[in-house]
Amino acid sequence: xxxxxxxxxxxxxxxxxxxxxxxxxxxxxxxxxxxxxxxxxxxxxxxxxxxxxxxxxxxxxxxxxxxxxxxxxxxxxxxxxxxxxxxxxxxxxxxxxxxxxxxxxxxxxxxxxxxxxxxxxxxxxxxxxxxxxxxxxxxxxxxxxxxxxxxxxxxxxxxxxxxxxxxxxxxxxxxxxxxxxxxxxxxxxxxxxxxxxxxxxxxxxxxxxxxxxxxxxxxxxxxxxxxxxxxxxxxxxxxxxxxxxxxxxxxxxxxxxxxxxxxxxxxxxxxxxxxxxxxxxxxxxxxxxxxxxxxxxxxxxxxxxxxxxxxxxxxxxxxxxxxxxxxxxxxxxxxxxxxxxxxxxxxxxxxxxxxxxxxxxxxxxxxxxxxxxxxxxxxxxxxxxxxxxxxxxxxxxxxxxxxxxxxxxxxxxxxxxxxxxxxxxxxxxxxxxxxxxxxxxxxxx
Length: 445
Prior knowledge:
This protein is of the alpha/beta class. The protein is 39% helix and 16% strand.
C-alpha cells in the first residue's frame, strides 16, 4: 500500500479559497481536498508535489487523459487563427465542422444541434425543444438522476440537498418516477428492503407508475440517463428502455437521453444508446467531447420546431460555438473513434481485474462484512456496498486519496465507490487501487 501524502501547501491554498469562494461550492475538511497543480495522462500532481492516479477523469471529462496531445495541438492550431467568435451572428469554420461531424455519428437522419457550454445547457435546450414540439410544460425524470443545477435542469433533480431553498420556483414543473430494480437482483435483498433502504421498486411497478403519469398527457418529455452517473452507476435494461420509448410515443411525450456522462466511449461504445438499441427523440452530449474545454449540445431530427431565425436568435450565448472548444471537440471525437477498438480491448483486461477483486474480497473474508455489487458498463463502473451505512464511501474516498488515488462516492446514500477514469486507463492501474481498497477494508475490521 502506498505511503500517505503530506499536504501543507494544500491546506494553505484551501484557507485562501475559503476566504473568497461561496461556502456552498467546495467541500473541505481536514483531509480533503487536494489542490491540483498539473496533470498528464492518468496522473495528477498537487501543490505539495504529491502524485495521484485519477479514476474520475475530472467528472468523466478527460477521456484522453490530462493534457493529451490531441487537445494541446488543436488549441494551438485554432488559437493561431481565431480564438473567439460571435455565437449566432458570424459562425466559424470550427463550429460548422463540429456540427457536421455530430450529424454523421448520431443516429438521426436529419440531425441538427443546439450548442451550449455545459451539460446543464444541453438539458435546457432539450427542455425548450420538447416544450415547442409538444406544447406541454411539465417533465418526467427518474429518481437519482442528475441533469445539472441551472434552474431548468434543476427541476429534474429531486434530491433535497440540491433543491432546498428553491422549491417555490420548481413547484409542479416535474415528477420523479422511482428507479427500477431488475430481477434477478444480485444483492439478495428482498423487495421491501430495496424499497425502504434504497428506494428501488420492481420494474413492472415502475412502468405502471410511468404509464399512469403519461396518460395525463401533460408531460413534454421523459428525460433520463441510460446509466446514472451521480446516482451510483445504476443502469436500465434494454427491455425497460424500449418500453419507455413505446409508452412515450403512445402518449405524445418525447424521450430524451442525457448522455452527457455516458457519451463518447465512456460505456465501451461511442454512445450508451448502442447497448440498448433505443434511439431517443433528443440526445444531450457534453463532458468528454470537449477534451477538457467547456462545450455541450442537444441533437435530434425535430429541431425544425424552432422557427428559422428572422434576426435575433432565441437560443444563444456569447460563447456559443466557441472556436477553441469546437476545434478541440472535433479532434477529440476523431481520436476517440480511432482508438475505441484499443480501448475496448483493454476493457477485457480491466473486467478481469474487477473479477479478481471480487475473488480476493471473498478469499480475504471481507465480502461477508462488506457485501457489494459491481454496477455500470465499460469505463463507467461503481462498487455498490449495498448493506453499508449511508456515507460509507466518503471516508473510503478520503483514505484512498491519502494513498494516491482520486475517486468519488456516489448514490444518494454515498454507498457507491465510482470509477470513471480516462479511457487510456490500463488494467494494472485497477490492480493497484483494488489492492489498496482491500488493505484499507482489512484494516477497518
